[in-house]
Every structure is written in C-alpha cells, then in structure tokens.
C-alpha cells in the first residue's frame, strides 16, 4: 500500500496536467526505510514526448546525490500517461529499476477526472497496490 | 590510488551491500572488467554486445559517459565513477 499526503498527490497531478500532452515525471523522496514520501521533486522529461519519458541524466545525478546525502531514497517514482489508462506499459516494466519504489501513474486522458494509481514493479512483475491518501500530519 | 565507483541499490547484491567499490583500468571498459573479476555479474548488468546498456547511466566525475567516449572513455586514478539506473518508460508500445 502507498500512503501519501493529499498535498503531494495534488502536486503530482498538477505537474501531469501542466505538461500534458507530453508525459510528466518526477520523484517523491523520503527517508530511507520509512516508506513515507515527503519531498516532491518534479523532473524534466528529457524526451518531451507524449509517449515516452526519461529523466535527464545530469538532473538525475544531482537529485540522486542530494537524496543520498540526506539519507533519502526515491519512495515514489511517478509519471503520466496522456492518452491511455494509468497502468504500466511494457516499456515502464522493462525500465523499472528501483524495487523499493512505488511506481505511481497518473492518466491525464480525461481533463475532468483524476486517475492516480500505484504499483510495485519487481523483476518484471507488476502488482497494483492500494493508495491511501491522507491529510497533512494524518 | 584507485578509481572509486558508486554502486546503486539495485546492484549492491553484487558488491556484498557496498555502496562504493574501488577498481582500476585505463578505460571505462577495463575498469568494468576489473570490477567484474571481484564482483562477478556486474559487467553483464552494465554492458551488452552493443556497448553500455540503455537502462543504465554511468558518470565519470559527474559527466555522463555517453557524452564522453562511452566504454572507451579514459579513466585514471583518483577519478570518481557513479552508476545509476536510468529512470524511463512511458505509454509507447503499451499493452493497454
């Protein structure tokens, strides 16, 4: 299960809407082992594409090093799908490389409806998990 | 002196949990071969028959080696190498 504050979900959805029709991507960092996402980091989609995303390698290095220095890890890795359902594609699965991360997916195909789902992707296997959205401090 | 190589979480099962290991070599390819001798399997996770795997980013002194010389990039004692899994994906070729 992913437990995440509403304010963080709102930021992820806002980022996905802002970058639509391109895919948006980013990270929510949290203390190692806490399984609690706390620090929102919007990343550049180096592909600037409606069907593909890739973190810019230099930005990723800076962000990963800052997490390392702060004893943080990527608790949530998010991206958007802009025309399809919020479910991991084959591409998403083949690239998934953080077994401890929650892979969050937002679909922006419907401007009126929020579709926010979360998955574990380990060794090529996808497991959808419950998302529990809590208020700050809750 | 040696070359320090920072290892990402997903590969630490090959380094007995170590976050950083040391190696030697004149090029990135030689360095990876040297590391693989002590941490078998590491090379296979970084390199395929076409060169560096697209799933991984390798940095030499904070520069992406793709913009340097790939596996032929020259390295020397005192350099720092960082390995990170690339974060990528997207709806392309999706099943759904």
Automatic annotation (TrEMBL), chain A:
UniProt superkingdom: Bacteria
Cited CDD domains: MPN_like
Residue intervals of the MPN domain: 2-125
Chain ranges passing through the membrane: none
Alphabetized Pfam families for the sequence: Prok-JAB (PF14464)
Protein name (database record): M67 family metallopeptidase
Keywords: Hydrolase, Metal-binding, Metalloprotease, Protease, Zinc
UniProt xrefs under PANTHER family: CYSO-CYSTEINE PEPTIDASE
SUPFAM superfamilies for this protein: JAB1/MPN domain (SSF102712)
Source organism per UniProt: Actinomadura alba
UniProtKB/TrEMBL annotation, chain B:
InterPro entries in alphabetical order: Beta-grasp_dom_sf, MoaD_arc-typ, Mopterin_synth/thiamin_S_b, Sulfur_Carrier/Prot_Modifier, ThiS/MoaD-like
SUPFAM superfamilies: MoaD/ThiS (SSF54285)
CDD domains, sorted: Ubl_CysO_like (cd17074)
Pfam families the record matches: ThiS
PANTHER family with a match to the protein in the record: SULFUR CARRIER PROTEIN CYSO, SULFUR CARRIER PROTEIN SLR0821-RELATED
Name of the protein: MoaD/ThiS family protein
